Here is the input.
Amino acid sequence: MNPLPFVIYGSTVCEDTALVTARLRALNIPFGVRYVQTDAGVNPILEKYNNGSRVTPTLVFGNDEIVLSEPTIEQLESALDKAGYTFSPLRGAEIRGELKNQRVPNFTLPSSHGGEVTLYKLPGRKRAVLFFVRDAADRISQGYVRQLTNERALFDEYNALPIPILTADAETTREWANEFARGYAGLSDENGSVRARYDRALGIEPSRALLVVLDTYCVPRVVSSAEEAGGLIAPAEVTSWLRLLDYECDE
Here is the structure.
């Protein structure tokens, strides 16, 4: 049986639309998209499926068998599975060998909340989740960090802290974090030197999106890299790794 075809009704300036389309590219799922900026028929469709509101993106499968509005990555993948699509889940790479016994490079960077943050001196021995953002204007990264930082209750439960690190000046970082990081601080790596050190330490191509989950000793435990942030591990997998680390005994 063929999978249900679907159409995305979105906006070219919507970070959630950008994230959904990037995720579909990463999963090699074909899709069609219609944008409000170029298609006058999109707004009536958005209003039809969102009680009169124009919510982007809205995905319509088949003849309304499945309708999603502003889906999380997990909701999107669940809908794709129900609609009959076959895809391989995107998984992080568990750190093994010598790297598992080595702390990642330390850094001290300006925080969007004021002052500076030093990785090795995070209060409360937090487990850090580092998300490197090369371009503050990248809407895929904006959408990804919104979904990642929406897991505040689980981050608190597992004594963890999401840390977006932007290759941007302090003011741009402050504005970006205020809009997309849901109350968490962003750090300004203006010249990209911290990202470059992590690329060398972890063997990552500089152009790729990068997320690193650390334990309480700042040792990397899982790395996710992709051509776009939409190809990184889903927030639910991030918190699953944090749950696993929480079960381990600190020695």
Remarks:
- The helical segments are 15-26, 42-49, 73-82, 139-149, 152-157, 170-180, 193-202, 235-247.
- The chain has a mean pLDDT of 96.
- Residues 180 and 198 are 23 Å apart (CA to CA).
- Residues 235-247 form the longest helix (13 residues).
